[in-house]
Every structure is written in C-alpha cells, then in structure tokens.
Write a structure and sequence with these properties.
The structure holds two protein chains of two kinds. Chain A is mainly alpha-helical. Helix content of chain A is about 70%, strand content about 5%. In chain A, the strands form two sheets. Chain A has a two-stranded antiparallel ribbon with strand order 1-2. A two-stranded antiparallel sheet of chain A has the order 3-4. The chains are: A mainly alpha, B alpha+beta. At the A-B interface, helix 1, helix 2, strand 3 and helix 7 of A face helix 2, helix 3, helix 7, helix 8 and helix 9 of B.
C-alpha cells in the first residue's frame, strides 16, 4: 500500500482525538465523582437514578411529615399526662372534702382550688402544637375549649402516610379525652365538684369522687392512645431513616464512579494521549526532514 | 540518419520533457496538503525517429491518479459522518435541556413538589407549608414549560440551520454545474481539466457532507450528482434544494428542477448534516416533546382530580392546581399554576370535607399519593420522566458512538483514497531526483554536441 503523509497524519490525528476524548470523559468522571452524570453516559442507569432519587425524596418527605406529627403526638401525650395528674389532684380534693369533718369554709377554699384546676385543665386542653391546637380535631386553628370547657372542635382523625398506601394516625383525639364522647366530660366533672363544694353539698361531693375517677381513667387511656400513635410514627420514622441509608447506598452504587478504577483509567488514558502526541511529533519531524 | 543538428533537437525535447515532469512534481509537492488534490503524473513517451527527427521524448499527457472507487467510498462515509455528527451535537444539546447536570429537571421539581405536599399533610393549616407547596407547584410548571420550550427552540434552531445549509448547498451545486461545463469544454479542446476536476470533486465532497452524494462521470468528463434518490446536478444544470416545514411542523426538503418542477425528497434525506438534523429534530426531539406533553397532561389531570375534590381554607372547592390542559399537544409548554390558586396558598385544597377545615389533611395525603399513582400506561410521574431521559439518553449515546465510528471510517476511506490519489513527498523527491538527473544528463549531451559543433565550425572557418 502506498503511504502518503496525509494518511500518516490523519491516522495520528484520529488516534490523538480518540485518546483526548477518552481522557476528557475520564477526567469528568474523576472530578465529579459520578460515573453517570448525563443520560447518554448510561441510559438505563440514569433512568434508575431518576426513579431511585424520587423514592428517596418520597421517603424523605414522609419522614419530615412523620417527624412533625410524632412531635405533636408526643406533646399531646405529655399534656394528657399532666391533665391526668391535675385530675388526680382534683380527686384528692374531692376525697378530702367528702370527709364529714370538713367545714363549709374549708370546702369553699377547696372549691377555689378546684376552679383553678379547671382553668389549668382548660389551658392544657387548649395546648398548641406545631400545626395548631392539639385537641381540636381538625378545627385546630381556634382554641377548642372555652373557659368553661365547652368544646368547639371535632373528633376527626387525621392520618399521614408512613409507607406506600399505609396511613398512621397523626393527631390526638381531644373529644374522647376531654368531652362526654369519651364517657365523661372532664370539665363538667370538675365544675360539678366545684359547685358541690361551694354549696357544701356532701352528697354531690361524694358522687363527684366517682365521676372524677372515671374522668381520670379516661385521660390516662387517651394518654396511652396518643403515646401509642406517637410510638408508631417514631418507629415508622426510624424505619424510614434506615431505609434511606440503604437507598442512598444503592443510589451511590449506580451513580458514583469507583474512584480507584477511574483514577487508574485516567492515568492510562493520559499515557495513551501522551504517546499519541509523541508519535505525532515524530511523524511531523519526519515529514519535515523529507522536504529539507 | 543521425546528425549533430538532429541530436540538438532530441536533447531539446529531453530538456523540455524532464522540465515538464519536474513542473508536475513541483505542482504535486505544492499541493501535498491541498484538500481534494489528486496527484498528477507526466506521461513521457518516446518520439519515434522519422526522416525529420532523430526521435527524443515528449510529454504525451498529464495523468490524474484518480480512483473512482476510493473516491466513492469517501463520499459515502462523509455522508454518514455528516449525519452522525449533526445528530450527535443536536442530541447532546437536547439531552442537556431535558436532564441538565446542574439539576432543575422536571423530575427533581416533581420530587420537591411531593415532598412539600408531604410536609403540608402533617401541617395542613401552616401558611409556610402551603406557600412551599404553591412555590413547588410553580416550579414544576416552570420546569415543564422551560424544558418543552427549550426543545421547541432547539427544533426551530435546527430548522434555521438546515435552511442555511440548503442555501450553501445550492451555491455549491451551481458551482459544480458550472465546473462540469468548463471540464467538458477543456476536454473537447484537448486541454487538461485536472485542476478543475479536483476543484469539482472537492465541492462534491462538501455536498456529501451536507446531504449525502454519489456521482457518475459521463463521457465528457462531467458528473451527474445524486442525492436523496434524485439528480441534483446533471451536466451544467443544477437543481435547487429548499427546506421548510409541513403541516405537522416536520421538516420538509424539496428539490426544484431547472425546468421548474418541484419534488419532495424529505423521506430520502437520511445522509449528511441535513439528514442528521432532520432525524434529530423530527424523530428524537419530537418524541421527547411528545412524551413530555403526555406526562404534563396526565400529571396535571391527576393532581387536579385530587385538588378539585378537596376544600381550600376558605371553604371553597372545585379548584384546579394546574391550569387544566385542553389537549396533550403543547401541554408541557403551556403548563402553569391555575389562576384560582396562583398567589393564594390558602386556596390549596387539603381536606375533603369543609367541616374538617383547617386541620383536615386527607386531600393533602391523597395529593402526596399521586406520586405513586400510575398515570395511564406511563407508570408513575417519575418513572415516566425516567423513561423520557432514557429515550433521549439512548439516542444521544447511540449518536455519539455512531459519530466516533464514522470519524474512524471516514479516516479509513480518506486514507485509502489518499493511498491511491494522494501526494507522497518521498515519492515526489525520488521523482524530482530522477528528472533532475535526466535533465542534467541531457544538458551534458547537449554540451557535448555543442562543443563538437563549435569544433567543426572553427575547423571550417579556419580552412
């Protein structure tokens, strides 16, 4: 075959350009740390990165929502715990006052104490969480209880998604905790005691003891419910956190360049490029010596 | 019968012939790097001795080392390379529009949107969560419309590029036609058309690069140029290529014959830059746009179906989050947040029962679940977008591989052609030496003859 200078130069130029492209591609990989940074690098892998990223984002979003709801439920649990304690104080007062030895003025004093407990109870029942009043159901933008304990909220249960198609309760039920919906109206029970104390009505006081006790049981059971809901969300959140770690690792497997391989390939491609340059130089000098 | 005067004449022809051969060598060397230059050879021929002359040598013709087979291969490969390169660069750009490496793609915005909706589902009455959802919805609409209009702009850019190319090609075609005429004339007059042929063949290569070409040489030396299954140049007549769009916004390539009749060659234009531009514009990018429109359409409708069934904080229902698309085509480019919700975060529906306002979150939860909802045959919104990226990625990867392969096959074809027709400097320097020595030898003979003659003259004049 007849060899012309153009052929030699063409060939060297072509191999130099291939070597340069390869080096460019590998230095992109090495500097970004990504094996797949655009769809054409590996179309199937890129598509899988898109769907995996979406899954991660979904789980992250749920995890945020779950955190907020779990925070509110934990707050509801401790609030109900305090409400239970207040209730036991009230029961204590009722038991003491049901003793026949107490004077009318002592009972009047006790009534004041019960009224203060009532106000504290209203305060607790109107506790605000990160997304509104905890015990108002979905009417959570206004205080669900007025100063005498009248309920203006509802018993709607809200849920958040913890896994595909799986919903978990995200609010505490104020209606069953504090109102007659749960069996006993906590505020009426306290008011009944206060009224009986004020009017020095021993029978009334004695019957209050029973009512107050069932109110307390109701608050405790509401606290347990809230605690269970909170625990369910927290454990779902924990599960999501560990799933996220796993998902990020498997995303990395697809997306990230293996740095050892990339760097050794990069070095190899640099050598190839330098070699091509060297050959080019030699060929050029030969071509020049022919014309001299 | 030989004579000293006859010898003078013979040597004169030798000097002339060697000189001419050196001229050809010089011409070859000077054009060693001229694209399209075909090596020439001076064909030396012995002059038979007659009564009037003692023989000698003459340059019978200047031959062009043209190889129609290797040249044809160069045309074929150049056409394929033109197509692969054009498609490769168009798809690299399209891919960057659909899946920009810096983020901001449709897929990312959909993810952020659903994340914001998840957050809203936990705090449906929180104004900042509502604003975040509205902002992310705006982002989604923007991402869709930016991507779609980016692709549309690229399509119109490609059309402009194709039209510019057609203008250049038309100039080239008429140059080829006029060179055809000059070559036929030179041949008829017995002159060497070699340089004209080089020029013309180089122009034909440009046409091959532009839209693919093959040629057939006729007896006058003129070529008939075929492209897109039709004749573009015949003798000294050139057709005109024009690029426009048809009713479906697809690129249309027409050829107008010198006589005035027009034919549509669109479907046959597959080679050269024009073929590559057409394929990337009307197949690859068009497909991406269509899938993007379909996704925008189904996504808007799925989100709207949930939104319009719920109630905003103001107790109103029946509002869409995205302007309801009227048809699939153009759905992505025209995607926007519905005016009834735009700027009004409180109008985002979160509860399916007005009595559950403001804390009810079932609509928000249902909205978040749209993320995992199958939108027709496309799968979820994200998997549909993943499919779009895979489609353009596959096309871009194939185009890039194709372009690299073509670069090699073109080099190969050029090398084969150069081997047959190119200038080898080594060969030329050997030739130069050869002709130079023959020239020197001839001058020595001439000198000898001259000295013999002058001796003879001196003898004659002294007697």
């Amino acid at each position: 075959m007849r060899i012309t200078e153009t052929m030699t130069l063409n060939t060297v130029l072509q191999s130099e350009s291939v070597a340069a492209q390869r080096m460019n591609q590998l230095s992109n990989e090495a500097s970004s740390g990504l094996a797949v940074s655009q769809p054409s690098d590996d179309p199937a892998a890129y598509a899988s990165i898109v769907t995996r990223t979406a899954q991660i984002s979904t789980v992250e979003g749920r995890s945020e929502a779950v955190k907020v709801a779990a925070g509110d439920l934990n707050l509801a649990e401790s609030t109900l715990d305090q409400a239970g304690t207040l209730m036991s104080e009230a029961s204590q007062v009722a038991i003491e006052a049901s003793n026949g030895t107490m004077t009318a003025s002592d009972r009047a004093n006790a009534a004041t104490q019960v009224n203060s407990i009532l106000q504290q109870m209203v305060g607790l029942a109107n506790t605000k969480g990160s997304s509104g009043y905890l015990f108002g159901g979905t009417k959570n933008n206004t205080p669900p209880f007025d100063s005498s304990g009248n309920f203006s909220g509802n018993d709607t249960v809200t849920q958040v998604e913890v896994a595909d198609g799986v919903l978990a309760v995200s609010n505490a039920n104020g209606a069953t905790a504090f109102t007659a919906e749960g069996g006993t109206n906590v505020f009426s029970a306290l008011q009944g005691l206060a009224t009986a104390l004020t009017s020095n009505d021993l029978t009334g006081i004695q019957s209050s003891v029973q009512t107050l006790s069932s109110a307390q049981t109701q608050l405790i059971s509401a606290r347990v419910d809230a605690g269970e809901s909170a625990a369910r969300l927290t454990s779902a959140g924990d599960a999501m956190t560990s799933a996220l770690t796993q998902m990020q690792i498997s995303l990395g497997d697809v997306q990230d360049a293996d740095s050892a391989t990339t760097f050794s390939n990069l070095t190899a491609s640099q050598n190839a490029y330098q070699q091509a340059l060297q050959v080019n130089k030699q060929v050029l000098s030969m071509a020049l010596s022919v014309s001299n | 019968m030989g004579s000293l005067f006859g010898l003078l004449g013979t040597m004169g022809s030798a000097l002339q012939a060697q000189q001419a051969a050196m001229d050809v060598t010089g011409n070859n060397v000077s054009n060693a790097n001229t694209p399209g230059y075909v090596r020439q050879t001076a064909v030396l021929q012995a002059v038979p001795a007659t009564a009037d002359s003692d023989g000698g040598v003459t340059v019978s013709s200047i031959q062009r080392a043209f190889n129609s087979f290797t040249y044809g291969q160069v045309l074929v490969q150049t056409g394929l390379q033109g197509s692969a390169d054009a498609r490769n660069s168009a798809l690299t750009e399209a891919q960057a529009t659909i899946a920009p490496t810096g983020g901001g793609a449709v897929g990312d915005s959909i993810n952020s949107f659903f994340s914001a909706v998840q957050t809203l589902s936990a705090s449906p009455s929180d104004p900042s969560a509502r604003s975040a959802v509205l902002q992310q919805a705006t982002q989604v609409a923007q991402a869709f419309s930016t991507t779609a209009s980016g692709l549309q702009q690229q399509q119109s850019g490609i059309l402009t590029q194709a039209q510019g190319l057609a203008t250049t090609l038309n100039t080239t075609l008429s140059q080829i036609a006029s060179l055809n005429g000059q070559i036929a004339q030179a041949n008829a007059a017995g002159q060497s058309p070699a340089d004209l042929e080089d020029q013309r063949d180089q122009l034909v290569t440009t046409v091959a690069q532009g839209m693919g070409a093959s040629v057939v040489t006729d007896s006058t030396g003129a070529v008939t140029l075929f492209s897109g299954n039709t004749v573009l140049v015949s003798g000294s007549n050139a057709s005109t290529v024009s690029v426009g769009i048809d009713a479906n916004n697809a690129m249309q390539v027409n050829v107008q014959r010198p006589g005035g009749s027009t034919i549509d060659i669109t479907q046959n234009v597959t080679d050269g830059t024009l073929g590559g531009l057409r394929e990337s514009r009307d197949t690859d990018i068009a497909q991406s746009l269509q899938s993007l429109d379909q996704l925008a359409y189904s996504f808007s409708n799925a989100v709207n179906a949930v939104q319009s069934s719920g109630y905003g904080l103001d107790g109103q229902t029946g509002r869409n989050l995205f302007t309801a698309p009227t048809q699939v085509q153009g759905a992505a480019a025209s995607m926007a947040v519905d005016p009834s919700v735009a700027g009004q975060p409180n109008n985002i529906a979160t509860a399916s029962d007005p009595n559950d306002l403001p804390g009810g979150n079932d609509t928000a939860v249902a909205l978040a679940q749209v993320a995992n909802q199958s939108l027709g045959s496309m799968g979820t919104a994200t998997s549909a977008f993943a499919a779009i990226t895979a489609q353009i990625g596959n096309a871009a990867a194939a185009a890039s591989t194709d372009s690299a392969t073509r670069a090699e096959t073109v080099t190969q074809a050029q090398n084969l052609n150069s081997s047959a027709s190119g200038v080898s400097l080594e060969e030329e320097s050997v030739n130069l030496t050869k002709f130079q020595q023959a020239f020197e030898a001839a001058s020595r003979v001439l000198q000898a003859a001259d000295s013999l003659l002058s001796d003879f003259m001196t003898t004659m004049s002294t007697n």
